[in-house]
Amino acid sequence: MELRVRGERAVLTAGRHAAEPESFPLGDELAAALHEWARVATAIRTTESTAETVGVVSRRGHQLAGRVAAELHRPVRYVDPVTDSAIVVVPQEPTPRRATPAAHWFRRTPGEPTPWGPGLTVSVMIGAVVLVGMLALATTITEAVAGWAALVAALIVTAGMAPSLWIGRHVPTMRWVCFGAAGGLAVSWLGVLVVLL
């Protein structure tokens, strides 16, 4: 397979047969980019151009040849329309992306100061929400059922939150939420015991 310019159009040749990019499964966007590149290359050939302009057109053609090779899954011989040099472009294997752990999204850069003001504000607010929620749960269950049921419910909520709080304690942004929730749980146990007595 060979990519070259004929007139002001890009063509792909295989043996003696030449066809326009639309004849291949390349997509409309890539076919249009190939024809646009061919028009620019033809204009560069017919006028005096700087070495920088010639280099830009050559690099663009090389990039497009790489895209064609990737789409067709086969090597493409690229004939530069300005310099008449030819190279073979081999399709690149896509590099697999590694999964990014969620903790990486919250990682601080080295030397970044600890945001004590906003962090403690978030901790206090989350702690207050957890405290009020636990006390409301204990009070409602004590009035509706019995004191022992409120104790069981508080144990279930604490056991359910504990693993998440333990895991999140090292994540720089989320640790403020975890510290607040843990503090709210600890203080709420005093309230739960008062409600039970």
In short:
This protein has 197 residues and is of the alpha+beta class. Helices cover 60% and strands 11% of the residues.
Average pLDDT taken over every residue: 81
Distance between the termini: 85 Å
Q: Profile the largest sheet.
A: 5 strands, mixed
Count of alpha/pi helices: 6
Which outline best applies?
rod-shaped
Strand content: 5-15%
Q: Give the strand line-up of the largest sheet.
A: 3-2-1-4-5
Q: Any low-confidence stretches, pLDDT <50, length ≥5?
A: none
- Reading the helices and strands in chain order gives EEEHHEEHHHH
Estimated helix fraction: 55-70%
Q: What does this entry look like structurally?
A:
The chain is α+β, with helices and mostly antiparallel strands. Helix content is 60%, strand content 11%. The protein has helices at 28-46, 51-72, 102-105, 116-144, 147-168, 175-196, and strands at residues 2-6, 9-14, 17-19, 76-79, 86-89. It has a 5-stranded mixed sheet. A hairpin with a 2-residue loop joins β1 (2-6) and β2 (9-14). α1 packs antiparallel against α2 (51-72), α4 (116-144) runs parallel beside α6 and α5 (147-168) packs antiparallel against α6. The radius of gyration is 33 Å and the shape is rod-shaped. The mean pLDDT is 81.
Summarize the SSE layout with pairings.
Elements: E1 2-6, E2 9-14, E3 17-19, H1 28-46, H2 51-72, E4 76-79, E5 86-89, H3 102-105, H4 116-144, H5 147-168, H6 175-196
Parallel strand pairs: 1-4
Antiparallel strand pairs: 1-2, 2-3, 4-5
List keywords for this structure.
197 residues, alpha+beta, 5-stranded mixed beta sheet, rod-shaped
